[in-house]
Amino acid sequence: QNPVLAQQTLGSVETLSFRGLGLTPIDCAVLSHAIKLSNTMKHLDLEDCRIQCEGLQRLGPVLHKCQHLGLGSNDLGDSGVKLVAAALRNPDCKIQRLGLYSVGLT
Prior knowledge:
Radius of gyration: 13 Å
Distance between the termini: 38 Å
Largest sheet: 4 strands, parallel
């Protein structure tokens, strides 16, 4: 809740990888808050983190900030992919590479 402390802690982090770690919706909310405070985030690897639509909703407001976004092997479903599409439509979207394989799209 302290933006200055969070910015000092994150410093100039460009890459965060949580690949293979199970992230709950609460984890996603905390991560979203941290990314919101970062101006240097380029690579976010959330592949195989067991994220579902609820977790992605928590991350939704910051997904557009990353240049490389890995979301593969998560059960996002159609609703989660729509959230990703909304991030891509954001006028400030920086996403250049997006990993969306095996996300439960029907």
